Amino acid sequence: MQVNSQKPVIGITTGDLNGIGLEVIIKTFADSRMLDICTPVIFASNKVINYYRKIVTEHAINFSSTKDMTKLNPKQVNIFNCWEEEVPIQPGVLTDAAGKYAVRSLMVATQCLKDGELDGIVTAPIHKSNTNLPDFPFTGHTPFFKEKFGAKDVVMILFSENLRVALATEHIPVSKVASSITKELIVSKLAVLKDSLIRDFGIDKPRIAVLGLNPHAGDEGLIGTEEQTIIKPAIEQAKQNNTLVFGPYSADSFFARGHYTDFDAVLAMYHDQGLVAFKSLAMGEGVNFSAGISVIRTSPDHGTAFDIAGKNQAEPDSFREAIFRCIDLYNQRNGYAANTANPLRRGRVEKEREGKDENVTA
Description:
Strands 3-4-2-1-5-12-11-6-7-10-8-9 form a twelve-stranded mixed β-sheet, sandwiched between helices. By secondary structure, the protein is α/β, with parallel strands linked by helices. Helix 1 (21-29) links the parallel strand 1 and strand 2 (39-44). The chain has eleven helices and twelve strands. The protein is globular. 34% of the residues lie in helices and 16% in strands.
């Protein structure tokens, strides 16, 4: 499989400095073959990278340090120094400092993305408790990128090889979900989702399933009327807009009976309705994608994992997959066939290490 000679430049944010973000970043790029498919730029400081290199000693990375995006080294991991001062690092502990510098990493990387110096961005997980700052009044990355890039609407999509789950609502209390679900909201989310499936995933006529809000999709109004008064009318309007959309389906049986395999994407009404099923099925290789913005942003499907931070226990599978998918999306938007520049799909990496796959280019 040939490697694309025009390697995309991928920005990488640290996430919470006390979480597992930097650990999985180092483990991902310890495989030097990652440099065959992209030029990575980690927005951090040499000091924090060196701190975590001492923890994951069996995963060595070499890096170039820079403060100038025009002087990147395509043959090494690049550290773009966003700060020089000492930052207290306490793995597994929620601190204000770790949140402050997570936001700084994100802000600097995003500005480089806006300036056209990056082809995509992969964000390590942040913790909402310590990033709620005056310059970051957001509940997560997706609304942040929506504002920064002036998107009319965005959709959070979690996806793996054979499953895509989008959310109508994201990080809001369950008590506010029902009042947040409107016909206009669903119609808008379906439009963004359809456009992304065509543009970003190369699916000409995507089929989209919509889940109900209530148990058993309301049982014809016996345990909730939102399906009849809001969700079904939204589906009908979307159909009039030439969208192949179906439902609403009862969430439990929809996933348990494997009906999701009949569709290109699923629109869930709220966070846990969609993501409990997704994370169970994705087996640790899911990727988060912000659809609807003009740039490409992905992230792993896990959080800061404070319980294992600093213990060298974090697996990099989801983060590595987020890098792969960011490159896939970049290539798709630029007219390339999916996976052309990604010879290092996780399964192929493992097979090569076991000597079973002679087709992977090192």
